[in-house]
Structures are given as C-alpha cells and as structure tokens.
Amino acid sequence: MKKSLKIASPADHHRTELKADFGLENHGLMELKRVYWNLTEEALYEEFVFRGEGQIVNHGAMLVETGKWTARAAQDKYIVREHETEDKVWWGEYNRPLAPEKFANLFARVQGHLQGEEIFVQDVYCGQDPEHRLAVRIITQDAWQSLFARNMFISPKSRQEYKEFVPEFTLIACPHFKCDPRIDGTRSQTVLTINFADRKAMVLGSMYAGEIKKTIITVMNFLKPLDGVLAMHCSANVDQELKEPALFFGLSGTGKTTLSADPKRKLIGDDEHGWSDRGIFNFEGGCYAKVIRLSAEHEPQIHDCTRRFGTILENVVHDPVTRRLDLDDGSLTENTRASYP
Q1: What pLDDT score does 6 carry?
Q2: Which among 72, 81, 133, 213 is annotated as catalytic?
Q3: 157 given a catalytic annotation
Q4: Which one from 81, 150, 256, 303 is the annotated catalytic residue?
Q5: Residue 213, pLDDT score
Q6: pLDDT confidence band for 59 (50 / 70 / 90)
Q7: In Å, how far are 12, 19, 54, 139, 204 from 37, measured between CA atoms?
Q8: pTM flag (> 0.90)
Q9: 3 has pLDDT over 70
Q10: pLDDT at 60
Q11: Which of 90, 101, 183, 210 is most buried by its number of CB atoms within 10 A?
Q12: Up-side HSE of residue 64: CA atoms within 13 Å toward CB?
C-alpha cells in the first residue's frame, strides 16, 4: 500500500482491540503511523489483499513470492557476542559474532526506518508446555508475515491474556530494510541477528518467512538446554493412546513432515521439539512444509493444506487466471513452502 493513500484499511477501526498493555514504546519503537495488534486470520487476509502483498489462489490459500531469498541466508546469521553467549555459542561460519555496539547501531537505524510506518504485531508463545514456553512478540511490516507468525506459533486464548501479555523475547522482521556493510559491519544487505542480553532479534532484508521461524527456534535451542530441556530438530507423532511417541530426525527436505503426518497416529509437530522431564512437546503451533511435487496420493494431509483458507504458500507457481497451483513447477525455487496451523 502506498504511503500517500489516506484510505482507512479494513482493520483500521479495530486494530487495537487485542492490544497488550505492554506497548511498543518499551521496545524503543516510537512515532509509528499505525499498529495492528494481534489481528485474526480473517482480518489479516483483508489487509493482505488491501496492500497488494500477493494473491488468493484456488480454494483460499494466500500466495506470495519472496523475491531474492527463497531459502535461508545461513551465512548472514549473527549472534551478539557478550557475557551470556561468550562461552556458550559454537562460533564459526554459521554463528558469526556481532559486537554489542554494532547491534545497537543497527537497531537504531531500524527504529528510524519504522517511524511513520504501519506495522503488525503478534503476541505468541513458542512451546506447547506451559512450564517451558517462551512469550514472544513478533513485529512485521507485512500482513502475510504476521499471519505466518500466527500460524507457526501459539496464540493466547482470551482478551485478558492478550492484554496482560509481556514478551520475554522480541523479533522485528523488516524485509524492506537493507543493511549497509560499510556501516553495519555485515557481509551483505541481509542480516539475521540475535541479542540474548537484550532479548531482541531482527530479520532484515529477507522476505523468506522461514527466517522468522528459525530465528525463534534458534533462541529456544540456546535457552532451553540451560533449563534442562533437550531441543531437537525433528518431527514427532504418537499413537492413539498417547503412550508411544516416535521422533524422526533429518535435514531439511528428508521427509520429517511426511513421516510425521501418519493418519493412524496423532501429530505432535513437524519440525522442532523439546524433551523435558515431563515428556516431549512441540515448540511450534503449525507446520512449514516443503510442497514441491507434493502428491495428493502419497501425502494427502499435507496436500489438503495447500488448498485451505489460512495457509500461506511461498513461491509456488500458479495460473494467474484460474488461480490453480502447479506444485510440480520449481521454476521459482525447489524450496516451495506451505505454512499452515
């Protein structure tokens, strides 16, 4: 949506109905044009269409193209090196150190970038076990990424819970912000960075929504073992009597989601889990499945989710006239994705 337009958006009149008392001024975000707090799926669909962020395709899923980045920018991930992380992080190619002052300068530029902008907030939890969940605030520039956060994590259950929500970690996603390596000391215009001392994270210069998910999971992978919880990159399901769980480990694209989606067993989750003294629990509230060459015959549950309201499809090719999907077409990327609750 162009800034020059002075038309009220569909959610303008109820954008603060689910606002938390703990406001964005606590994060240093000031002079914002409008803030859309914890919008529902339906309201986010309306904002998505109003802002021209993508298309609605056959059977009601959202479809977006993420531009330059259609997968994770692993070499652009930085963790602030300070007293809490100094001797606990395996520093190297995929955990690059960032000085605290560099993070502070970068955050100051993001603060300036967001002044006069409209942003979306989702207050969510990461972790199904109430004893080990993390309260997370996810701030995005785009409506569809706000729905992604709502799909992938766990929402509060009542107006009162939203009102009293206080985040333990905050992530700001600004895909339209470009870092400057000369100023920011980064490798490129894209930066994914976590500051454990300040309990802040930023996803900058990438529209690929997987960066939001993986950044929060990285936070859990660091914090949860310190609480005696094993953090695992695996899918999980359980028998109908909830007595015999199964874990499926593997790299991205090796079949974790497919194996866990067994119609004869109950799904726990498709990607990230914790194992505490109380048992196994999902970190997430949704799935983020690869859909390239997905088969209705062999993967009926996942295939069904590509044809459902509330699903976000990334970089899937479609016919612009009929709005029908071509899941076999990998011309944009082999890493086509579906996010669904």
Answers
A1: 72
A2: 72
A3: no
A4: 256
A5: 97
A6: very high
A7: 10, 5, 21, 10, 21
A8: yes
A9: no
A10: 97
A11: 210
A12: 27
